[in-house]
C-alpha cells in the first residue's frame, strides 16, 4: 500500500472496526484533528491510533479517556473499550487477543517456540492437551472455546495473500511425548504438511546447541505493509506486545542469530518426519 494512502474501513466487519470507523469520523469531523493532535499529551503515537481506527488494535482505557476528552464524546470510546475487548478475545487469553488479531494483517510472522508448538501448527488433540494442562479445573466449554480459537487461526493460510510464516522450534518439542504416540505422530505429520503446503519455513534448534541468542520464552515478530513491526513475547499467564523500534531491532538481530544456530529447513523437516515415523513405529522414546 502506498504511503499516505487512505484505508477505507468497513464498520460491519467487526466490533473493533465499528468503533474504529466511528473514531475516524469523530476525529475528522468538527475541527478536523490529525492523528498527531489527538494523541498529543498521551503515551501513544499516531501510528498506534491509526491501527485502532482500522480495527487492528484495541484502544486502551487511558487513551479512550483522552480521546473522549479531546473530542467531547461524553465517555463513548471508554465505554466501547469493553465491547472491543470482548469481541477481540474470542476464546484467546486476553493478553494474546491483540496479537491474534494482528496475525490477519501481517506480511510476515516469525515464531521462536522453545516450549510449545506454535498455535498455527497445532492439532486439535495437542491444543486440547495444552489448554487442559494450563487450566486443569476449567470447564469443558472453556477448553473447547480455547481449542476452537487456536485452530481457527490457521485460516490465515487460506487467504489470497497469506503472511510468510517462519518458525524456529527447539528439538525438545518434537521429542517430548505430551500426547500418546499416535497423537504425537499426527502432530508432527501435521506440522510437516502445513509447512510444505503453505511454503512456510521451519527450523529446529538441536538439543546439542547448549547456548544460543534466545535463551528465553516464546517470541514472535510480525511485520506489516502499512504499520511498524511488533514483537510479542509470552510467559505463563501473561504476554506483551512491543513496538519500540529499538527493542524490535534488538529482537530481530537475536532472531537472525538464532536462525544461524538452527538446522537448515530441509534437514529440520526431515527430523520432524523422522520423529513422526518413530512415534508411529514405537521407536521414538521421547
Automatic annotation (TrEMBL):
Task: Quote the InterPro entries the UniProt record gives.
Answer: Cro/C1-type_HTH (IPR001387), DUF5753 (IPR043917), Lambda_DNA-bd_dom_sf (IPR010982)
Q: Where is the DUF5753 domain?
A: 96-274
Do you know which CDD domains this protein is assigned to? HTH_XRE
Q: Where are the transmembrane segments?
A: none
For molecular function, the Gene Ontology terms on record are: DNA binding
Put simply, this protein is called Transcriptional regulator
Amino acid at each position: 500500500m502506498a504511503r499516505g494512502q487512505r484505508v477505507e474501513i468497513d464498520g460491519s466487519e467487526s466490533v473493533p472496526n465499528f468503533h474504529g470507523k466511528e473514531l475516524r469520523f469523530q476525529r475528522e469531523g468538527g475541527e478536523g484533528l490529525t492523528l498527531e493532535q489527538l494523541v498529543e499529551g498521551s503515551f501513544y503515537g499516531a501510528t498506534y491510533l491509526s491501527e485502532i481506527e482500522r480495527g487492528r488494535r484495541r484502544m486502551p482505557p487511558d487513551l479512550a479517556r483522552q480521546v473522549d476528552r479531546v473530542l467531547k464524546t461524553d465517555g463513548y470510546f471508554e465505554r466501547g473499550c469493553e465491547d472491543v475487548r470482548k469481541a477481540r478475545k474470542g476464546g484467546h487469553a486476553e493478553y494474546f487477543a491483540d496479537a491474534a488479531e494482528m496475525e490477519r494483517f501481517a506480511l510476515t510472522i516469525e515464531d521462536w517456540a522453545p516450549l510449545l508448538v506454535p498455535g498455527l501448527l497445532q492439532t486439535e488433540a495437542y491444543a486440547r492437551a495444552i489448554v487442559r494442562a494450563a487450566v486443569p479445573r476449567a470447564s469443558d466449554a472453556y477448553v473447547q472455546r480455547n481449542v476452537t480459537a487456536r485452530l481457527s487461526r490457521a485460516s490465515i493460510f487460506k487467504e489470497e495473500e497469506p503472511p510468510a510464516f517462519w518458525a524456529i522450534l527447539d528439538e525438545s518439542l518434537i521429542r517430548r511425548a505430551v500426547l500418546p504416540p499416535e497423537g504425537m505422530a499426527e502432530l508432527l505429520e501435521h506440522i510437516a504438511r502445513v509447512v510444505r503446503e503453505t511454503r512456510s519455513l521451519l527450523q529446529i534448534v538441536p538439543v546439542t546447541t547448549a547456548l544460543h541468542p534466545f535463551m528465553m520464552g516464546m517470541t514472535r515478530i510480525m511485520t506489516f505493509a502499512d504499520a511498524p513491526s511488533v514483537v510479542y513475547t509470552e510467559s505463563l499467564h501473561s504476554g506483551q506486545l512491543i513496538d519500540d523500534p529499538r527493542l524490535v531491532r534488538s529482537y530481530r538481530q537475536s532472531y537472525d542469530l538464532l536462525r544461524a544456530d538452527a538446522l537448515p529447513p530441509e534437514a529440520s523437516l526431515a527430523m520432524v518426519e523422522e520423529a513422526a515415523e518413530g512415534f508411529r513405529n514405537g521407536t521414538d522414546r521421547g
